[in-house]
Design a protein that fits this description.
Layout: H1 4-7, H2 14-21, E1 38-45, E2 51-57, E3 72-78, E4 84-86, E5 88-95, E6 98-105, E7 114-120, E8 126-132, E9 141-145, E10 150-155, E11 161-172, E12 177-184, E13 189-191, E14 199-202, H3 206-218, E15 221-233, H4 245-249, E16 260-273, E17 277-283, E18 289-293
Parallel strand pairs: 1-16
Antiparallel strand pairs: 1-2, 2-6, 3-4, 3-7, 5-6, 7-8, 9-10, 10-14, 11-12, 11-15, 13-14, 15-16, 17-18
Length: 296
């Protein structure tokens, strides 16, 4: 089973992953923690078949024990006849003696619905978070600007564009294994103020092209497939570049967890195939550069 912060590459959400990696804040030893029970980090994806979140007790040090947690984690569909799932626990080892508990469920989630994620121990300590998923949106598509030799991703029907990145799956001939290289394109996105919910993203494949070309030349790899990953986020979404480092580092800074710390957001994700183009110096009959699928 995949570690939750890698399960949708995500988001990746890249921004969410950045937050997850910094979530175990060290509390001051001279001040008892009587306010927080658990830290909860992750996201709920209506497009995924398995949901993963990381849940850890709030303590004054990193978690260095593999002992089971005294906690029951449930995911409840808030609403009439709402389903309740008890989430399964999985222990992950991060190296250097550090462990973390990730909880998962195959419960089906629906766009535009609200879910309650709750962690409760036998002493009655509870941390919970309400998460509302965004509406579904049409499949994004890629436009090719031959004049400027650019590929542009067009995303419609999305209020909060949370993540855009490309995945390049390479096959290693000697080990018979595949490796996925991901490149973030969210920083190249532009929301069109004249059209609500419309975003254009310059895929700008130069970084990926140059890196992969050099890598494949030096290693026995063959490209298997490419895709672009897009995620829309619900109303709890925080765009991290708009926040200061001080706000991000504080437990209360961007937490939406009651009686705890952490951040959970609802998303809907899409994956579309991408045949990245390489432009040549040749010109077609209409005076436009000729573009061919990149071999790497």
């Amino acid at each position: 089973m995949k570690l939750f912060r890698h399960s949708i590459y995500f988001l990746c959400l890249v921004l969410i992953t950045k937050l997850v990696l910094s979530c175990d804040q060290t509390f001051e030893p001279f001040q008892d923690n009587d306010r927080y029970s658990y830290s909860i980090f992750g996201y709920l994806d209506a497009s995924a078949d398995t949901q993963w979140v990381r849940i850890m007790p709030v303590r004054d040090s990193y978690f260095l024990s593999s002992e089971p947690l005294d906690v029951t984690v449930t995911l409840e569909h808030v609403g009439e006849g709402g389903e309740i799932a008890v989430m399964n626990d999985s222990l992950f080892y991060y190296g250097q003696g550090a462990y973390a508990w990730n909880f998962w469920t195959t419960m089906n989630l629906e766009p535009e619905q609200t879910y309650l994620l709750k962690a409760e121990d036998t002493d009655g300590n509870i941390s919970n978070v309400h998460v509302t998923l965004p509406k579904d949106f049409p499949d994004p598509y890629i436009e090719v600007d031959l004049e400027d030799q650019e590929e542009i991703l067009v995303v419609t029907g999305v209020d909060n564009l949370a993540d855009v990145h490309s995945n390049h799956e390479l096959y290693h001939h000697l080990s018979d294994l595949t490796t996925v290289f991901s490149f973030n394109h969210h920083q190249d996105s532009l929301s069109l103020t004249t059209q609500q919910g419309v975003h254009t993203v310059l895929l700008n494949p130069s970084e990926a092209r140059e890196y992969l070309e050099t890598y494949i030349e030096q290693n026995p790899y063959t490209l298997q497939q490419r895709e672009v990953f897009v995620a829309s986020a619900g109303p709890e979404w925080q765009f991290f570049p708009d926040l200061s480092e001080e706000i991000i580092s504080l437990p209360d800074g961007i937490s939406n967890v009651d009686n705890g710390v952490g951040y959970v957001v609802g998303i809907v994700s899409k994956r579309i195939p991408w045949e990245m183009l390489c432009f040549t110096d040749e010109i077609d009959d209409f005076g436009q550069p000729i573009a061919n699928p990149c071999p790497f």
